[in-house]
Write a structure and sequence with these properties.
mainly alpha; 238 residues
Length: 238
């Protein structure tokens, strides 16, 4: 591979590193938002009220930051592909494809903006029958949101499977340290476990994520720093 082609892959590494660190920041902001403005409302009526009283606060409670965070995965995992493609191009491509499909499914299941539209229509409704219809539609959306729908669960499983493949490749790669690989295997292995078991054993999610959640911050920090290092421009020869 010539130097020009190799240098072209440094930019995706830098971009992936930057978005990985931005994911850490968004995750921290999500925690702050959870404490300060609260978590997702329990009912459609409460959701409509929250959105009507404050659009931004309502969207924050409906996981807007999580949506933005997942969108960054496209760039982060493309950066990881750029860094790992020479270790095992086929499996690096497979991992990237799994994550991309999973993220797309998860994003498609996000219902915040649909609920915002229903909230506006609910507020403008002239009869109790109309309001009842919008409430029913809102409850249906909340039952099929990013945490409960089949698409979201499948998307979550695909993301974690792709991330596990990436972490496995890190063990064989000279690009990433063993610590990054091991943290990735534990983090994404636990998250995959809660995705697969969460629908049948609801109590498993908070227990597993109490461990995996902080490890996510560690893994993305390690990945971001390393990708930025790998993406540095090569020093001029001579």
């Amino acid at each position: 591979m010539n130097e020009t082609t190799e240098s072209a892959w440094r930019s995706p590494c830098r971009l992936g590193g930057a978005t990985a660190l931005l994911s850490v920041l968004l995750s921290l902001l999500t925690m702050v938002a959870l404490v300060t403005v609260g978590g997702p409302p329990d009912t459609a009526e409460e959701t409509f009220t929250v959105l009507r009283e404050g659009r931004l606060v309502g969207l924050l409670r409906l996981e807007l930051l999580s949506l933005l965070n997942l969108m960054l995965y496209y760039l982060t995992f493309f950066g990881l592909y750029a860094a790992l493609r020479r270790t095992d191009g086929v499996h690096a491509l497979l991992a990237t494809a799994l994550v991309f499909v999973g993220v797309t499914l998860w994003i498609a299941s996000h219902s915040a903006f649909s609920l915002m539209t229903l909230s506006d229509r609910y507020a403008a409704a002239a009869t109790d029958a109309e309001r009842a219809r919008f409430l029913a539609a809102g409850e249906a959306l909340m039952a099929a949101d990013m945490w409960h729908s089949t698409g979201a669960l499948a998307g979550g499983a695909l993301i974690e499977c792709g991330a596990l493949v990436v972490s496995t490749l890190m063990l064989r790669s000279a690009v990433f340290g063993r610590a990054t690989a091991v943290v990735g295997l534990v983090t994404h292995g636990l998250d995959l476990l809660q995705v697969l078991l969460g629908a049948f054993v609801p109590g498993v999610k908070p227990v597993v994520m109490a461990v995996a959640g902080p490890l996510y911050l560690v893994w993305f920090t390690l990945v971001g720093r390393r990708l930025l290092q790998v993406g540095r421009p090569a020093p001029d020869a001579g």
